[in-house]
Specification:
- There is one protein chain.
- By secondary structure, the protein is an alpha+beta fold.
- Helix content is 19%, strand content 41%.
- The chain is globular.
């Protein structure tokens, strides 16, 4: 049997942040098997970590598809490696992924991820985007993965009730909606919708902040941010723009440990 652990990421309390399932493997498993496990776990991402000499192999699956970059499940994977003794507490964890080598480093009670920046550029609104969000006008940008929509205030971000069927038709991984934060303890807020990838609303998303940090750095003229994701579960993410990289900091809590009985590849 294989151990599987569920971790709440970008939170310091159980049942907040974004849940990720983490499975540590001795050797790679088939893509089909990993997708079935991710569908069974039915959280936004399930991470599969393969033991290696110089770096751990790492792949991420939603219940519907494999993704190229995932922050919260990388944070959860590092947390599992350290808390189970798979990796020394005093050494950064290195991951070989579809987005290159990613590292995770312990910073006291926080975990710092070194990720590639994914800056957006202003673009024409794709047909149906603002209508699906019930917005009449807004700034629209596009990153490597997502559309980014900036609105005037946090209240607008909070009250969004998107038409997920219409968002599912967009040619993008998902849609980020963001504004300046009302609470002075935070720089900006966001929500993230990715129904085409099997996630209507993601609770706390690390990879979107690789775009958001770059975006707000230009808007606010600074490099360090504290951000809040305004999903029902919520999440707190610190971000630092560092050249063409973004350092993301978050916390993580183990909530469940179990065994996969259907472990055959």
């Amino acid at each position: 049997m294989l151990a599987i652990t569920q971790v709440d990421a970008f939170t310091n309390e159980p049942f907040g942040g974004n849940p990720a399932a983490v499975c540590v493997l001795d050797e790679p498993r088939s893509e089909g098997w990993m997708q079935l496990v991710a569908r069974e776990m039915n959280v936004s991402e399930t991470a599969f970590v393969v033991r290696g000499r110089d770096a751990f192999g790492l792949r991420w699956f939603t219940p519907a598809v494999e993704v190229d970059l995932c922050g919260h499940a990388t944070l959860a994977s590092a947390h599992v490696l350290w808390t189970t003794g798979e990796h020394p507490l005093d050494r950064p964890a290195r991951f070989d992924t579809r987005s290159g080598i990613l590292t995770a480093t312990r910073r006291g009670d926080w975990i710092e991820l070194d990720f590639p920046a994914t800056p957006e550029q202003s673009t024409e609104e794709p047909a149906g985007l603002l209508g699906a969000l019930e917005l009449s006008s807004a700034y629209v940008g596009k990153s490597r993965f997502d559309y980014l929509v900036e609105v005037n205030d946090e209240a607008t971000v909070r009250r969004l009730r998107p038409d997920f069927g219409r968002l599912r038709l967009l040619e993008a991984r998902g849609v980020i909606v963001t504004s300046r934060a009302t609470d002075p303890a935070f720089d900006f807020v966001s929500r993230y919708f990715a129904p085409a990838f099997g996630i209507d609303e993601d609770p706390a998303t690390g990879s979107t902040h690789c775009c958001l940090a770059e975006f707000w750095s230009r808007r606010l003229g600074k490099k360090m941010f504290q951000a809040r994701q305004l999903s029902e579960r919520g999440g707190v993410i610190k971000a630092v723009v560092d050249g063409d990289r973004v350092r993301l900091l978050g916390q993580a809590v183990t909530v469940l440990r179990g065994e996969l009985c259907g472990a055959a590849a």
